[in-house]
Amino acid sequence: MTCWRNEASLKTDPKPSTCVDAETFAADVALEGPPEVEFNPGIAGRIPAKGSAGGALVRDRNGHVLFVTPRYKPFLYIPGGIADANESPKAACQREVAEEIGIELRLGSLLVVDWVPQNGVWRDSHQFVSDGGVLTPEQVTALRTHDDELDGMKFLSLDAAAPHIHPSLYRRLQLAIEAAETGRTVYAEFGRAL
């Protein structure tokens, strides 16, 4: 499934980004009825906002996980990133994967939804991890970073990556690997399944 950014004006954000096909999405929006208005002026601006991000669990044939090395942080991350305004986490993940490693990845099942508390300047968020599949040796060889924000990428076992990733990401990826094996999506909070 291909994600897209709608160029037509809808009653929601004029250009939402979603993985639902455009015709179905437009029909669904129309069925919702007229745009909601604030019953109490200014209330929408006072409701806390949560961030969301989409990441891909991409593995090689040995079960090693693909990590990217950002230039702006001292930790490894999985391919993906923060969703833009009115962009779905899956669309954000597909966009970021294409930007970061230059491949159009067909994301599989949602593996983990993980709530992460506020950390410094970063508000609390929902982190979505989707199955990015297992790459062939030819696909692995062809991988290149395509983003100025990255120094590189590497496949590592989760244990080898542990000293180079946040403990919460380690826990989230443990859950994602288990979910990929069992076919069961996991809800977690700070990497702890609930």
UniProtKB/TrEMBL annotation:
**What are the residue boundaries of the Nudix hydrolase domain, all occurrences included?**
49-178
InterPro entries with a match to the protein in the record:
NUDIX_hydrolase-like_dom_sf (IPR015797), NUDIX_hydrolase_CS (IPR020084), NUDIX_hydrolase_dom (IPR000086)
* Coiled-coil ranges per UniProt: none
> Could you tell me the keywords of this UniProt record?
Hydrolase, Magnesium
Q: Name one GO molecular function term.
A: hydrolase activity
User: One Pfam annotation, family name?
Assistant: NUDIX
So which cofactors does this thing need? Mg(2+)
Name-wise, this protein is ADP-ribose pyrophosphatase YjhB (NUDIX family)
> Can you name the source organism?
Saccharothrix variisporea
Question: What taxonomic classification does the UniProt entry list for its organism?
Answer: Bacteria, Bacillati, Actinomycetota, Actinomycetes, Pseudonocardiales
